Amino acid sequence: MNKFKVSTVLKCENLLGESCFWDPRYDCLVWTDIQGKKAWKLDDSNQSLEFNLPDRAGFILPRKKEGFIIGFPNFIAISDQSFSSFEKICDVESTINETRINDAKVDPYGGIVFGTYNEDPDKINKKPIANLYRLAPDLSLTNLLSNITVSNGIAFSQNENIMYFADTPTGRIQKFKYTQDFNKFNELDSNIIFKDVGEPDGATVDINNNYWSARVRGKCIISIDTKREKILEKINLPTNTPTCVTFGGNNLSSLYVTSLRADPTNDNEGGNLHRIETDTRGFEQLLADI
Question: What CATH number should be reported for the domain holding residue 79?
Fold first, then answer.
């Protein structure tokens, strides 16, 4: 039995809901349905809006200016607030047919950190050809990490200058120390890997520096004490395929969860938006200088 209240707040039936965040500029939740080629918004009174996109968006992130930064399969663009106009600002792996842009977060220095994903359907022989990048406010692109299959789990513990990352098939959540503007980016020793709770997908960090991980194919969210590398909470969900989490609402204590509609027959809550009422809070969403 769950310690926290879990509810389905929107039956949106996303094919692949992802990249959710609470936008402090417009006081609403924003996320993408990657395979559905849609952007979504949900306000605090549960009123939703959906927007058609010209292609699959692996991530949507907010700017200090109006509008959003969007990661389409092989390029990054800036859109207006209503997702009706798009300006390309950066090509990404445009010569690699198998990869597309996936998970991303705004970093504490106004840039964005994002990763790519090898979409080869042959899971057994899929090669780690994806990468992790930082796009700086001046639009310079830096490769932070290579030999990745599925980039996920990016989250920042801002007051510790630690970034978390997960290559989903490995099951391991990695820790990296970064300095001003990512002039240094070094992996720290860690052993954050848990069996029998699905695989790590999208994630966020709360004000106590605990890491909240969506466990795709694990039917749960887990909260991790990143110092002791232990699970603090395991929260069961009505869907087997949660994909991403973020804190939102008036006091940033509601944990919103997007999901994947993988098996509508046996998992009719897959693809819907869920909410967990927690006893902690998240950080206010960072805004990019891009």
Answer: 2.120.10.30
